[in-house]
Amino acid sequence: MAAASAPQAADEQWGSRVGFVLASAGSAVGLGNIWRFPSVAADNGGGAFVLLFLFVILLVGAPALMAEMALGRHTRRNPVDAFASLRPRSRWALAGGLGVLASFVILSYYSVIAGWVLAYALMAVRGDLVGQDATALGQTYANLAGHPWRPVFWHAIFMAMTVAVVAGGVRRGIERWAKILMPALVALLVVLGVRTLTLDAAREGAVWFFTPRWDLFTWSSVVRATGQVFFSFSLGMGVMITYGSYLGRAEDIPRSAAYVAAADAAIALLAGMIVIATLFAFGLPVQGGPGLLFITLPALLGRMPLGAALTLAFFAMVAMAALTSAVALLEVVAAFAVQRLGMARRRAVVAAAVLIFGLGVPSALSQGARPVHLLGRDFLSALDAVTSDLILPLGGLSTAVFVGWVWGVEPALRELRAGSPRFRAARVWAASVRVVIPVTVAGVLAAGLAGVR
Ligand code: PHE
Description:
Blueprint: H1 17-28, H2 31-43, H3 47-75, H4 79-86, H5 93-125, H6 134-145, H7 150-167, H8 170-197, H9 202-210, H10 219-232, H11 239-244, H12 253-281, H13 290-303, H14 307-341, H15 345-364, E1 373-374, E2 377-378, H16 379-418, H17 426-449
Antiparallel strand pairs: 1-2
The protein binds phenylalanine.
């Protein structure tokens, strides 16, 4: 370890605030919004869960987003050195290290699922999906996910796309693509929304989605809502620290964080409505799981007028959402390799991607005839459970404790006020970072360890 050489600071910057907000929103909006949120919400009391989700965003998610952005901008460094530069020779660097590790592991299986999405997008282009009923689509999904090499192939393609974006750098790679992909994603989502919500019976579904059913609402719903917000906001793994490190001093962090939070919540709600309304329109039970994205939805979209186009629009939209999230994950690892290991960006990006691809191969093969197992589950689900139930909350907890108690709310507030002189919610923010986030996240962590999920 090159303890003597000072960590390098980031030498790149976002070109504009819009670019930063779109890239951060791109990181936030992903499979978590389109796939995870609708099914978790459906299982946990619909409207009751939606209310709780918004509440957790206000009290935990948005303040945590601001804390990570401020930490990143203040130190201008990758997550490991962000902690280490404020508390040298302490163990706090481990908290950043946990984030880099989590990004590494999450990307390895996220890319596998995104690879399935790409394969579906291609099938949609060729018109292969339309006309298949749910049984046939179930077979299509099993054939793809369980195939001996196709998942590995699509995993490689998706990683290559991610590399192509990240290798271009912060401004000319990540920001440029976010400015293209995010508006395209929203446009596709609106088209899908208009189409599905005008179906007969769809309105019932939308109403159902927003009607609280308190009987389905349990303590584990609280755990799931918090976990969902952390995963969806890309918190606890250094993404927002890294993105914040490329932010100029004059930018308004509270406002940017509010935009990102609002965009993420709005897209989750819209996606939730689309999914649930479609299920209702076809009189199907509301349930989640991989089948929702890869079996039920294509079956339904294909039965509507213009079904082929809608199916393609849907998978293109999901692929875009997944790509901007994967980009953020790879950037965390790349920033670490560039600043800490002194590698050139392109080399760092390619090297990280090759290692991540390698770790993803067992996940890609985990749904097949000879599945790879870990901790009593298939490899992909095991990695997902360990990272989202354990490593993310741990990372989120340590970041909040660090900002609230070690770095301290006063210096952090000075950083927030640098671009936002009239920031008014300072006391609420401080209380959230010092108490609300640590208590909530510690509870989630304990519940996760106790197996409440
Ligand atoms: N937020 C992304 C999603 O909801 C997932 C993600 C997690 C992306 C962590 C980046 C970092 O799908």
